[in-house]
Amino acid sequence: MYGKGILKGLSVTWKRFWNTYLDDIAWLLRGKKRYYTEEGIKHRSSKDQRGIFTIQYPEERLITPEEARYVPFLVYDEKPDGTREQRCTSCGICAKVCPPQCIWIVRSNDPNTGRPIPEPTEFYIDVDICMNCGFCAEYCPFDAIIMDHDFELASYGRSVYNMEKLLKPASYYKSIRPQQYERNEAERKAKEAAKAAKAAGAPAAPAT
Amino acid sequence: MATTIPQTETTQPSATDLSARFPGIVSADTRPGFKGWIVPKQNLLEVATVIRDELGYDLLSTVTGVDYFPDNKMEVVYHAYKTTGGPGLEFKVQVPREDPVEVPSLIDIWPGVDFQEREAWDLLGIRFTGHPDLRRILMWEGFHGHPLRKDWKEGFYEEEFKPFKSRWPSGQFYMAEDKNPYHDNLGFPPNFDPEKYIPEGDALVYGSLTRYSVKNEEGLSTDHIIVNMGPQHPSTHGVFRAALMLDGETIMSLKPVIGYLHRNHEKIGERNTFLLNMPYTDRLDYFNSMANNFGYALAVEKLMNIPVAERADYIRVIMAELTRVQNHIVFIGNLLNDLGAMYTPALYAFEERELILDIFEAVSGARMMCNYFRFGGVVRDVPDDVMQKIKDLVYERLPARTEEMDRFLTENEVLVSRLKGVHVIDGETAVKYSVTGPLLRAAGVPYDIRRADPYSIYDRFEFDVAMRTNGDLYDNYLIRLDEIWQSLRILQQAIKQIPKGPINSQKPQYQVRVPAGEAYGRIESPKGELGFYVISNGKPNPWRYHVRAPSFVNITPLEKICVGNKIADFVALFGVIDVVMGELDR
User: Fold this and answer.
1) pLDDT along chain A (208 residues), means of 10
2) Domains in chain B with CATH codes
3) Alpha-carbon torsion (B318, B531, B258, B177), positive or negative
4) Is pLDDT of B52 > 60?
């Protein structure tokens, strides 16, 4: 029969159209909210999704996975006495491994001793150039630079982030990437324990 | 070129000894880490004819120009393959680097070299004698110089290689344009006045179209009409322009004009270190960044001669096949968009794409610019919950949705009447024009690199090479569905077989050591043969980095495909080649 193929195709669109409402009713009967709730969004972006697929941004947002990466930020630890301790030692690996070369680090020397200060004096990231590749965070040996989850970066001018804009507390890092934070902390503790054991076990070892 | 690493393998193509066939003429390339045959330029045509006709290498895959600036010579590297499968044959021509650099064109033997030779002329200034239309292809006509030459410096030039010392330790931030104002940093040819310049590019494009003028029976003279499609045209998948010569509604002649998105990816790649280049490959074919990563990683791993961790190999295959499924579903949606079935099929396709991208985001951190592969493995493991998501998709959702797509479109009478019988390309022409990928397989040539020259672990999986025989639009549509089913088969096997273990055979390091030599890594990307030709001279940066982009090579026969068809079908004929501008223009 001519037109059979078209009817078959239309049945697909028809089914999709009704599925949206059927699912709405099913969720309603179960007493759950399908829209504007995390559970609903999760369901609508899972394999069981039927009918309408759209997430109503900005009222609703997709669940960001932990690994998601946008521009990087610098981490500082909050000491019990309220001071900030930067993790960055300005070793420059992030600047060297940055593909578009958007990281600038200024180092300076201590005026009294003349030796370099580990903390960077200035730290710039040109966010307009940054390609969000995540190499800096991947190769940072101190977990001092982490990829952020904040993707709403629109601005009216050029965005060159300085230290003030880049520094964020470790608690924020923990809140966006809990699993990675736990892994890093465990690694760090193991390293410190090994160091302490080495220092206690072999105090006469020559300093390298 | 000096090397510090001893030569690890001397794999001369054993089956075909060209130096025995041409004693005293062809010699083997004996530089450490290099392979292939060096052919004198006056014998190139003769040797190439033998390679095609006697040795059976019917598909010329790449034409790559290389500038050996310090040695004062230039080289053109050719890779030829058999469509029946097996390893390839590499041959080279070396010419002195003086003006003009001339190499005979192979266009009469393999017409598919057309655009690649134009590219080598454009970017490296190698003149191919005998090429009928040797114009610039990626740069604009008024461009001065050949940018891939090693002595050519770009505007805002900072340093020869990354990392730049100005970032660290001297770290003073400035905006590039503040330091290098426009007029101080641009080279113009002598006697060039930008105020008085009239671009001659368009005249050249129109001049290259075949003109015609006829008189009909009543003595009325009919003339050609030139129509420009693009560069801002919604159907051209980006900034692509085609100058068409029409007779009524029939296309008489056509020239594609490309390069609007050109950024000299290869020059950037030569400035980058090997690792830094990985995220740049994402930007080539931005629909299939995992596939691009795959090809580049294979090429550099070949050069470094390192193994890939077992689990990582499986992860790579899973990601590459998910990419293929995603690409083909979106292709079908977009093809329907091109045909006028606006939005519904395309948006249905994008639902599956979104779900696959969710997986990419969960493992790599980004939806499109994945940057997931590292030399020797992948960057991080696939967590169990993501693996469960992949399983759900592969076993439940994707088969159901592919089946639904099939039900939705395949028998639709409007679609069938639009697609069936609109001839795209036949197998013989496709091979001559170096066409690869689904376009070639729909024309009846079952050439799939996963089977013909298996890379990674594709030899462990059971799957069929999809093939259709008519080579019309409808077959090109159907073959995408076939390939989705085959990809799902591979995925199901890979998910079952994937072992536990480390995900990288190497220690994570930001500066990889790559011994001197050359390597050509190629994969079957969803669009065709994606190859990366990399030359290292032992330094942290590649000396030459060339991308054999399937989109770029596959549009070589565009004129052949379109001539004789109606202009209304041009959109579909162009769409079926499945080009992505990021890769086409590079």
Assistant:
1) 83 89 88 86 85 86 88 88 84 88 85 82 88 90 89 86 87 88 87 85 54
2) 18-129 (3.30.460.80), 153-198 (no CATH), 204-257 (no CATH), 265-584 (1.10.645.10)
3) positive
4) yes
- CA dist B454 and B524 (Å) reads 9
**Cα separation of the two ends of chain A:** 87
Report which residue type is found at B356.
Answer: I
Q: Which residues contact A33 (CB under 8 A, 6 or more apart)?
A: A27, A39, A40
At residue A207, the pLDDT reads 46
> For residues B438 and B98, which has the higher predicted lDDT (pLDDT)?
B438
The domains found in chain A, sorted by start residue, are: 7-63 (no CATH), 72-198 (3.30.70.3270)
pLDDT at B440 over 50: yes
Question: What pLDDT shows up at residue B229?
Answer: 84
In B378-407, the residues whose Cβ lies within 8 Å of chain A are 379-380, 389, 392-393, 396-397, 404, 407
Element containing residue B574 per DSSP (H, E): helix B567-577
Q: Using CB atoms, pick whichever of A4, A103, A139 lies closest to residue B510.
A: A139
In this predicted structure, what is the pLDDT of residue A202? 61
Q: Which of A102, A104, A109 to mutate to test the interface with B (most CBs of B within 10 A)?
A: A104
Torsion of the alpha carbons at B14, B16, B19 and B25, rounded to the nearest 10: -150
Residues of B in contact with A9 (CB under 8 A): 407-409, 411-412
